[in-house]
Amino acid sequence: METREAQFERRMVDALRKQVPVKDLPGVRIAQVRQEPERPFDVSFELTSGKNRILVFAEIKQAPSPSCWRRLVPGYSA
């Protein structure tokens, strides 16, 4: 039986493959989505816009920790 965490991760990877995060961004596309369970990250993919390509390595989390928010959002306090 699949854990809740594994189900969530599978749904997020599926959303990437279906272009959900970029659906309203003209010319932006997600490609080469790969789950990477043996690596320190959960998924990798290419984000493309026109001739520009970025290789993204991501860790999938249901909720960011307070320390993660502090790194991402200046002035955040929890």
What does this 3D model show about the protein?
The chain has 78 residues and is α+β, with helices and mostly antiparallel strands. It has one domain. Helices cover 27% and strands 28% of the residues. The chain contains 2 helices and 3 strands, in the order αβββα. It has a 3-stranded antiparallel beta sheet with strand order 1-2-3, with helices on one face. It is globular. The N and C termini lie far apart (35 Å). The mean pLDDT is 85.
Give a nutshell description of this structure.
The chain has 78 residues and is an alpha+beta fold. The protein has two helices and three strands, in the order αβββα. The protein has helices at residues 4-17, 66-72; strands at 28-35, 43-49, 52-58.
Q: What's the overall geometry?
A: globular
Major sheet summary line: 3 strands, antiparallel
Give the rounded overall mean pLDDT. Answer: 85
Q: Order of strands side by side in the largest beta sheet?
A: 1-2-3
Identify the quaternary structure here: single chain
Helicity range of the residues?
Answer: 25-40%
Number of self-contained structural domains: 1
The strand count comes to: 3
Beta-strand portion reads 25-35%
Number of helices: 2
- Structural class label: alpha+beta
- Give the SSE order as H and E letters: HEEEH
Distance between the termini: 35 Å
Catalogue the unreliable spans.
none
**Radius of gyration, rounded?**
14 Å
Task: Quickly list its features.
78 residues; alpha+beta; 3-stranded antiparallel sheet; 3 strands; 28% strand; globular
Give me the secondary-structure topology.
Blueprint: H1 4-17, E1 28-35, E2 43-49, E3 52-58, H2 66-72
